Amino acid sequence: MCCDLKRRFLLLYATQKGQAKAIAEEIWQQAGAHGLEADMHCMSEMDKYNLETEKDPVVIVISTTGTGDPPDTARKFVKKIQDTTLPPDHFAHLQYGLLGLGDSEYTFFCNGGKTVDRRLQELGAQHFYDTGLADDCVGLELVVDPWIDGLWLALKEAFLLQKEKEGMSSDVDAVSSSLSAAPHVVHELNLTSEVQNLKLEDGGVRNSDVLTQKLVDISLVASAGDTEPSLVHSVPPVSQSALNIPALPPEYIEVQFQDTHGENPHLSSLISEGTTFEVPVTKAVQLTSEDAIKTALLLELDIADTVFDYQPGDAFCVICPNNVNEVEELLQILGLSEKGDYFVCVKVKQGTKKKGATRPQHIPERSTLKFILTWCLELRAIPKKAFLRALVECTSDAVEKRRLQELCSRQGASDYTRFIREFNVCLLDLLHAFPSCKPSLNLLIEHLPKLQARSYSVSSSNLYQPGKLRFVFNIVEFPVCPTRAVSRKGVCTGWLAELVAPLLHPNKNTLDTKGGNPSTEKISIFARPNNTFHLPADPSVPFMMVGPGTGISPFIGFLQHRQKLREEHTDWEFGETWLFFGCRHQHRDYLFKQLKCFLENGTLTHLKVCFSRDSSTAEVAPPKYVQDAIRLHAKEVARVLLKERGYFYVCGDKKHMADGVSDAVVDIISVEMEVDKLEAMKILAMLREAKRYLQDVWS
Length: 699
Fold this sequence. Notes:
Elements lengths: L7 E7 L4 H15 L3 E6 L15 E5 L12 H7 L13 E8 L8 H12 L3 E2 L4 E4 L5 H26 L5 H9 L72 E5 L18 E11 L9 E7 L12 E5 L4 H11 L8 E6 L17 E3 H8 L8 H8 L5 H10 L5 H9 L5 H7 L7 H7 L6 E4 L10 E7 L2 E2 L9 E2 L1 H9 L1 H4 L17 E7 L14 E4 L6 H16 L8 E7 L11 H6 L5 E6 L14 H7 L1 H10 L3 E7 H20 L3 H13 L3 E6 L1
Parallel strand pairs: 1-2, 1-3, 3-4, 4-5, 4-6, 18-19, 18-21, 19-20, 21-22
Antiparallel strand pairs: 7-11, 8-9, 8-17, 9-14, 10-13, 10-17, 11-12, 15-16
Helix pairs in contact: 4-5, 8-9, 17-19, 18-19, 19-20
C-alpha cells in the first residue's frame, strides 16, 4: 500500500469518459510534491479499499452521466451505500472531500456527485473539505483548479486533527513541515515589458506545477500591431506573466510497428455498453428544402433480421468513424502516411512513472494504425490542459512553445476557454496553428479520449412499422472561424450524410459509389434504452409534447404507437394529446407536414405550430417560439399537468428552448395556482421527481 499511514489518503474516482480519472491522476501526481501519498483506485475496484474500516481522509472525484446518473464505474458503490438497512452512524468514522463533475446544460447538474455526497452524510460521514461542483459547460478547470489548490491545506488540517484525536502529537511537526514545504503557490514576478521566453527546466518541473522563470533577452513577438489576443497570440498581462502550468504527465504507452498482415478487430469489440447490430440503411429522405439553414435527414434501418428491440422514446447509438480526410491529414503531419496500413502493437511502457498504467480499453492490442485513428480515438475532442502541456515538449518554435504554455497555465485560463473551448478547437486545429508541434503517436493514444458512439432518438414505433427503425438528425456544421481554417461537418452526421448520398440522389453517378446497390450500406448500432421518456402506462392519461426542430423525432414514434393502439383497442379510453412544434420557416423546415394526418384521425387532439422567421400580416402576431405558444394555452397546460395529472414531454435544444419552456411552465403554475415563483419552481421540481415532467435534451 503506502509507506506512511499518517501521510496517506485514499483517492477514489468514478468516471464515464475519463475526465474524473484524469483529475484524480493530477491530484495523485501533485500529492507527492506535498509530501503525501494518494492511494488511488477506481470506485469500481471495491476489493482494493474498504470505507467501513478506512481511517485516513478520503478524496472522491466523480462525474455524472445520462440525465443525472452516477457513472457506470460507480454503480456498485452507489448500490452498496444505498442499502436501507445501514445505520445512520455507519460511516461516522469517515472524513472525506468530494469533487463532482457535471454540465449545467442538463437538469440534474452534478447529480452523480450529489447522490454520493448526500448518502455519505446520511450515514454519518463528515466533510474535512467543502464539496466542489465543476461545470463542463463553462470549463471544469474554473472549479477544479482552485479546489485542488485548497485540498492540501484541508488535508493538513485533517491530519493534525487525526493526530490530536489519537493523542499522537509528537509527529505533528513532521506532517506540518512536509506540507508547508511543498511548493503550491506561485509568487508573481515583476517582468519587463519585453516578451520573455519561459524555459522549461528538465529537472524539478516534472514533479511540480511551478515553473522556474528564466529571462531570455530575445524577441519572440509578432508585430507590435497585434493588440488583440488569439489562439496563437497573447497580450499582457498573460504574455508577461510567470506561468503556473500543470506537471508534465508521464508517458506510459509504447507503440511498435509490425507488418501489414492480419485482420483488424470487429467494431463490436470496441463497445462495452451492449450488443451491437450491423443493419442496412434502407431509406433516406431530406426533410428540409435546399434553401433551409439546416439540413435534416430521416434514415430508415432494417432491423427485421435482428433481436434489436425498442420502445418509442428510446435512444440508440451509432458507431461512427472519424473523417477519412482528417485521418489522412493527421498521418501526414505525424510523418506516418506510409505506415497507415501497418499493424501496430500497443503496450505499456516499461519503467513508466504513471501509477497503475494500463493500455486504454478502447485501443486494441493489435490493429492497423489507420484503424486506431479511424475508429478508436476522438480526433475532434477539445484538448485538455494536460495534453497541451505534453504538446509543449513536442514544439520546437519558441513563440509557439510559449503560447502553448500560456494556454495550459492558470494565468491563461480565460484564453483557454475563449480560444479553445468556445471554438471547439481540436487536435488538427492546434497542429495547423502551431506547425512546429510534432507529437508522437504514443502521445495521441495517451491523451485523446475514446471515440464515442453518437446517440439518436428513435423516431418510429415497432408496433406501427415492425422491423423498421427510423431516426432524424440535422447535419451538424462547424463553419470556418479564427481558430478553424476549414469548415467541418459533425463526425457522425457528416459520415451518415455521405453514406446515404446515393439513396438521396439515386440518379447521380458519384465517384464514391462502388457500383453496388446503394441500399446495401450498413451501419453498426446498439441500444440505449431510456428508462423514463416513454408514453404513460395508462393510455387514458393526457399528455403534452414539446418538440421544435428535430426535437419532434421521438414524438413521431409516440403518435405512430398511439395510432396503432387506437386501431387495435377500440374499446380503450385514450387521453387527449397535445403537440407544440416549431421551426424557422413553414416552407423550408416543417419536418413532418403529415402531422395533420394524426390530427385528422384523432390520434393527436391539438397541434400548435409556430414559425420563428416567417413574417406575418395578422393583426395579432402569432407566437414565434414553442414557449410562446405554451403561454398562450396556459389554462390548458395547468389543467392537463396539475388537475388531470398528465405528462409533459420536452425534447430538443437545452439552452435555447428547454430552459425557455420550463420558465413558461413555472410562470403558468405561479399564475394558475396563485403562488410565488419560488413555490412554482418547487412544484415543477416535484413534477420532475414524479417523472411527469420529462426532458430529452442536448446542448
